[in-house]
Amino acid sequence: MAKQNGTVIETTTGLAGNAQPLLRITDDQTLNEMEAARFLGLRAAKTLYFWRVQGRGPRFMRYGARCIRYRVKDLVAWQEQQLVKTDTKESKEL
Q1: pLDDT digits (tens, 9 = 90+) for 47-74
Q2: 36: three-class secondary structure by DSSP
Q3: Average pLDDT of the chain?
Q4: Which residues of 4-32 are buried (b: 16+ CB within 10 A; e: fewer)?
Q5: Does any domain span residue 92?
Q6: Residue 22: which domain range?
Q7: Which residues face 31 on adjacent strands?
């Protein structure tokens, strides 16, 4: 579970009453492709590569041909954009 608290994001694991902190990062911090994939809960970092090639996915920074970085705040913003509103007219008809 990721929780945003000001400019600090704490990622935890475990059951609700027994959550243990795994990672403490700021929203301006940058992550490499593998770290970003883990942050997003993706099975493989290659997914981010394919999304970049297709012009999809979260914003990223390119420092060279092989150096790609993702800002945590861009990953969080992209996750928010992926939320699907379920109180639409179509969902009520189902």
Answers
A1: 999 999 999 999 999 999 889 999 999 9
A2: helix
A3: 80
A4: eeeeebeeeeeeeeeeeeeeebebebbbe
A5: no
A6: 2-83
A7: 70
Using DSSP bridges, classify how beta strands 8-13 and 20-26 pair: parallel, antiparallel or unpaired. antiparallel
In the structure encoding, which two tokens stand for residue 20, read together?
A: 């243990």
Tell me if 20 sits within 8 A of 14, measured CB to CB.
Answer: yes
CB 42 within 8 A of CB 50: no
Whole-angstrom distance, CA of residue 91 vs CA of residue 94: 5
CATH of the domain at 52: 1.10.10
Quick one: tokens of 68?
């790609």
Give the whole-angstrom CA distance, residue 10 versus residue 48: 22
Pair 7, 26: CB distance under 8 Å: yes
Q: Where are the alpha helices (DSSP H) in the chain?
A: 33-40, 46-54, 72-81, 89-93
- One-letter identity of residue 8: V
